[in-house]
Amino acid sequence: MLKIAWRKEYTHPLPENHRFPMEKYDLLPEQLLYEGTVSESNFFSPDFLSEQDILQVHDANYWQKLKSLSLSRKEERRTGFPLSQALVDRERIINQGTIDAANFALQYGVAMNIAGGTHHAFSDRGEGFCLLNDIALAANYLLREGKAKKILVVDLDVHQGNGTAEIFQNNASVFTFSMHGKGNYPMHKETSDLDIPLEDGTDDRKYLKILRETLPMLLDEQEPDFIFFQSGVDVLSTDKLGRLGMSIQGCKERDRIVFEHCIKNEIPVVASMGGGYSEKIAHIIEAHANTYRLAQDLFF
Asked: What value does the mean pLDDT take over residues 261-284?
């Protein structure tokens, strides 16, 4: 069964001027239910991530600032959100959702988080709408519990997974792969284990060719036993923050490539949604929904 993490807190703690496109976290499950891709039984409601798990990845001083709502104005601006208790609670719920999804993926082969993909959160700071790094926290959990030995992060959001790269820079058990816009945020890139920077306007043909050549090579070389897939749809040509040239169909084919390689190699995968900032919310929802449709069709 396809298991999907979602709670109303994914959207509702956010202030009104930050709701778009964050309303996708409500609209996406509604669309999937309406069209019959999933039923209510596919969704699960994550609880709060424990402080113990947070401190396995994030700096204690940084977590204390979040917990006490004492980030400086500069630190708060860097995250992109006004800091509040509701926002910190939201992050803890989303991040626990990815850990729970990892356990479901071990059982069913795949699991999803309606939110997550918070790859700009560093060990000691938040950036770019990310306070805690769900991919890093879930990967650390699997390694710590002996549920995985080698993890591959496939980050295909248009923005480099800079926080994830920093967190795992000295950890040979996690290989970080980021394919992203060369001239896009963050302007200062960290060093992933493999970075593929793409020129502005990169279209479906070129993008998919690179992915088809790179992913099988990585699977052969790294032999991961678990994959975290950051499936941001800000690669679309319609995205206000993206600068690439992909179509909705091309984005769907990207997801198909990742999922089919996971199935072929019998590697469990968790997909977190990541970014998506097209002017029309319908474009965002359709591109994200394709990820779920493919997971349902290919795995079940």
From this structure: 95
